[in-house]
Please model this.
Amino acid sequence: MATGTDSERTAREPARPPRLADLLEADTLERFLRYVRIDTQSDRDSDASPSTPGQLELARLLRDELAGLGLADVELTEHGYVFATLPGHPAAPVVGLLAHLDVSPDAPGAGVEPQVHERYDGRELPAGLGPATSPLLRERIGHAIVTSAGTTLLGADDKAGVAEIVAAVAYLRAHPELEHATARLGFTVDEEIGRGTEHFDVARFGAAFAYTLDGAEVGTIENETFSAVELKVTFPGVGVHPGTAKGKLVNPVKLAAAFVERLPKDTLSPETTAGREGYVHPQQIAGGPEACTVTLLLRDHDDDALARHEALVRRLAEEVCPAVAYERREQYRNMRAALDRVPWVVDAALEAARRVGLEPRLGLARGGTDGARLTALGLPTPNLYTGGNEYHSLREWISVEDMALSAATVVELLRLWAEPGWRDRHAAGLARAGAGPRRS
Model:
């Protein structure tokens, strides 16, 4: 039989300690709101590195913040990368943490004014955002939701990842009693235009493996990306004054239009595919009387299928104009096969997600990350969630609670890799592969 009043029993019971995510929430949000106000939109037409000065502005801010936290090896490179080290357990593998500073040029990105909608109740938000246009919002009723004012993107891709990494590292610096692995932080530029790792020195970075924080829904860990090719198809023309052009003029704009018209419409396009299905996407047309170029993005999770997509594009182009010219650039490759050779790297991310109370799942990215390129260069790098949604659009949004969970996952991941069992698993895996552990 219970004794004492309810108030007396409550007074005797110890208070429930706050969740790790709760402790990280305010700092993560404060950093995020500051970062998104800086215009870091990258520019496909610029040859500079970084392609825009705003990325350097955020890079300088991060350099100063990381130095202020007392991190080691803080560096801002000539190409705008920011690196730093959080020292940790000397026997643990060095863990890389990566995010990119730029935002997409596919939607307006200057003058971001973030809006925090406390205790979201399902109402319509700026830019027509609501449960009808973004169904995951229905599951976030009661959360604090961050959007832009509706005239720009928000910048959660990938400033949420940046904020989450810095908040996690700041927490560990403030709690030296928590044992953790050494972390190498890397913030890259121009990821959105495919140049995020052009000047990235994997050996100098010094991590045994890494994680990009550049995903979306919390709990989803991506170990697979598209393989990607950019193909520029140029149609030659013959320029003549239109008044005297009969029998002479060859209009390359019409040739390009005829080619685009032949591309598949009901399949093999971004608007008609999902899941593992690939696509052919005419992204841009530019030209004039002498030549017209169609830039296409070719994507698939299967390399053989990607080759078939490219063969189709070339056949259709040559049916329109046998003299067509091509410029091909391989952008990145699916990282799945390489990550399957180091399964403990992905398993650790799954376990860290469980430790913050999530039910993790593996997913595939219908896109690419810096991690895909780095994995191909020998640095295994799966992609972790940040909580962001509706990327590259005016409807971009993120839950504050989800950001905090993502930051907490980083803390747990670094703590996990300091544990003997996980350290031993990494060393044993490398030994089976015939390599020694990389610790610096």
Residues 156-174 form the longest helix (19 residues).
